[in-house]
Structures are given as structure tokens and as C-alpha cells.
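Risk register update: the risk of archive-format incompatibility is retired. Evidence:
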Amino acid sequence: MKMQRLFKGNPWYEVVWLYDREFEGRQFPLVYLANGQPGYVITQYIYDLMVRNFSFSMLELHVRSLCHLYAFTCARYGFRFLTETESANLVANFLDAKMYGTDEHCTRRATDYTWMHDLGLHWKPLIFSQRAKGSTIRDYVDAITEFDKWQSVHHEVTQLNPKEKYFMNAWERFRDFKRRSQWDMNLHLHKSRSHSFEKYQDHIREKLDKFEDGRKNINSPKKFPPNRIVELVDSAATNVRDKLLLLIMLGGSLRRSEPLHLFRSDVEGMDIMGQAKIRLADPETGMVEWLDENGIKQSGTRVKYFKDYWEKVNDDIPLTHPLRHLAPRTKLDRRNQGLHSGFKSMTLSAGEQGYIAGGVDTRDYDVHYLWWCDPRIGAYWYELFKQYENNYLLKNPFTGETVKLRHPWLFIIIEPGDNYGMPLSITAVKALWRRLKKRLGITYRLGWHSLRHYFGYYCSSVLKLPIEQVQILMHHGFSTSTEIYYHLNQANVRQAITTAYLQSTDCNNFTPELISEKSSIPKFPVHWTNDQYKLWIIHLNQLKSSVEILPTALQKSLKEEGNE
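Archived output:
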């Protein structure tokens, strides 16, 4: 049994993570309180969360929230029983301490807040973080309230932060029905719903509204600036791995954590246009193929792949090493060297069976591939991938030694040191984005997800694809999700309005003079391509006699290539 300490030098609690066979090797957080004894109630609650299959991130959030609340209670009131008034205000005071900081970090000097100046918690204020100010505070409240409800049911104690139940009026029920009609598969059960909702008590709700007030008025752009895409990839990103991450997100619409689930074997060459063929699959239930110890080809889910293949390959690694017990990254612990990575489900379209080297693809299950919004981006990605494979995946450029990776993932640590070749962590991806923004001088709020918004913008305003097609390209289950990313260019909207007006007034002859014929297809650098893409363009130019049968977007792309 391995024990891993997470909190050191804390006088109020200690958390020890234990590997437990009952939960298939997951780590169980055992909480020790200030008296040195295990916390019975919180351990019982944690067990219930794990039985309910809470994710690692949610489990860690609940443990942290409750331990911080316990530390706050001990710091302010000691170990005595609280009065009724103190209990009623405990959560609200805890939120103040989190929001404004404690001890030397406290930002409040009024006499009402003097109790925060000598708690010994040394919490830094969240008020200076626009992102954390609202979301982190609400996460704390939600986690504490969840425990509060559980404890009142199982131990019959009075809730610290009870919610008030409200029933919808006729207008609210109608609005709820209209909203659900766009996505709810159980809409036919709408009349049988309780039509009620819960609210926090007034003093808690007022604090949450106050903390989130600064976030509601932020009007930062959602998509990454299109005119800075080339600068982001070619200038801000300083190595080939980072360029691959950027291109696959802006050109392939992947979310921040999704590239971390890709296997090296998921890159299955390139297609006729030179675009990289990158296989997409659920990190747990998605199919994969491998060769067993006898060289016989096997296939199965990715969970089975780790159990049947990597468990045998890595059986010589010490039991305490993070790569000893490999599994899909959704199942790995966040504290296990940063191997955990979340995954939001994808809606994959019909399988794209195709040809592979040596014959027809004989896989008897659907295989899904990433969609590129522009073939030049996909071609450039594959060209960079070959460099990445030769320079980093197959050998260590700092030692010159051949690399034998003990895991299947595509993106690895390429910085010199003992961790070379380890899977890239989500923490490293977040830090990379901060460095990229700093190099570009971007100070406003803009995250990795802005690259996914760029994909939606490109499909809607450059390729002018209908939202139903963009929904498929972005792997959305409902078009309502795609609407958030469907950014129409203002110039295109004005042009459409002008064209419609001229047509309605029988002034079609003036359309060419008033409407610019300039293509909206962006001009990427010449090196954003590869030899296969160039051959494809040559082949298309040979078919110009039948160019009228080609899609409009492709005609524009051909015209741009010809002008260059």
C-alpha cells in the first residue's frame, strides 16, 4: 500500500492518499484531523463520493473545500462547539476569508474584518483573480453544500448552508420548456417534472453575486484574433511540439485536454490532400490495435489495451513509479505526476473507413478522424509531426540516446532533464498558454478555448458552411452547442444584406461594382504545406475544365493558389 502526503506543515489536518483495490487502484484520500485521528464523517462522505464514481478532479475539490472549511473553523473558533449564530454565519465568513485573504494577505482594514488578520491561515485573496474570483468561490460553496445535504440525511444534523426551494410560475415553466426543446431528449416528460429550483440563502447569494459581478461585464473576444494566428504558431511557439498543439486545436477544433489523450499510433499517415489523418476516440471505450508478445495483432478498447499490453511491458518498473500502473488519463490521479486529464465527450459522425498501406482497412468497427478546417493546416501539421517524431519521439536530442517511451501518448515532455519523455501534463499546457500570451503581449482574458472558437469562425465566416455541417466538424451533439462558436464576420453580414437589397430592387447589375470579389480565404505562409498538398493542387489545376463542379470554398482556394 502506497501512501502519498499532499499537505505538509498544516496544523489542522493532513490528507494521505491510499491505493485501494476496492476502487480498481484509485487513490482514496484519508483525512487526519488536528487531534491526529482519522476524520470519521468526512472519510465516510469521501467513500460515498467514490462509490458514486466522482471524478478525480471533483473528488479533490470536495476534499479541499471541506478541509479548508475545517481549518478555518479551527483557526477562528478553536475546538469548541459553535453557537447558533456562529454556525449560521460560518460559511459566509469562510467565503470572506477566501475572497479577501487572511493574515498578512488580508485586503480589508475595516474593524468588521479585524478577525481575519490573525488566523494563521495565510490565504491569498481571490479578489485579484478575475477568473477565480467567481468560479472558485462558487465551487467551494457547491462542494460544502453537497456535504451539508449528505450529512443532514445520514447524521441528522442541522445544515450549515441550507437551500431554499422555489416553485416556477407559469411563465418560468414555459421558458424552461422552450429552452429544453432544443436539446432535451426527455422533453415528453416535461409535465411530470417538479418545476422547482433551489436557491442559496440571501446572505450567501448576495456574496456570490458580489464576487461574480466583475466577471459578468467582461466582454473579451471569444475567438483568437485571426490576423495573429500565423504569429502565434511561427513566432510565439518556440518548438515543434508546441506548434503541433496549437495547430491541432485551431485547425482541428480540439479542446485543451483532448490532445493529451492522443496515442502516437493515432497518427495514421496523411490523406490525398496531404492532411494528417488523426484518429479520434474516447480515451476509455475507443478502439485501438496493438501487437501482443507473440506479434499477433489484437484490438479492443483502450482500457483493455492498457491492461493487456502496457501492464506487461511496464512490469519491470518500480511499483511507486507513475508509469507502473497505466490507464486512460481520465482514470489516473491528478496527483500522480500530472498524468490525469479530463475529457468531454465527443459526438463522432459515421465511420470513415478508408485505405491503408498494403490494402483495404479491414477493421470491423467505425474509425473516426479529425476534421481540418483548412487542408494547408493539416498538411503543415503532418510536416511538423515528422520532425517531432524524428527529433524527439525516437531519440533524445540532448543526450543523443534512442528513446524507448514507456507509454503510448503522443505529446511528451521535451525539455532536458530526468522527466524527458514523460507524458505532457495539463498543468504544463496551461503554463505554455501563459507564456504564449506574454510573448504576444496579450493582456486581456483569452484562453486555449479561443482556438476552438477560431475553428468555428473559420467554418462560418471563411468557408460559409451551414451550422449543421459545423456541428459535425466540431463533434457536437446538438446545434445549440455549435451556435456558441458560429461567429459570423460583420463584413460578410453587411455584404449579404447589400446583395439581398440590390436583388430585391432589381439592381443586380450594380452588384459586381458594390460587392468586393476578394476571397476570404486567408493567406498562410508558403511553408504551411507539404509535398503531397502541392501535388494535390497541381492535380486540381489539371481539372480546371470542370472546376464548376467543385465546391465554392475549394474554388476560392484554387483561385488564391493560382494568384500566388
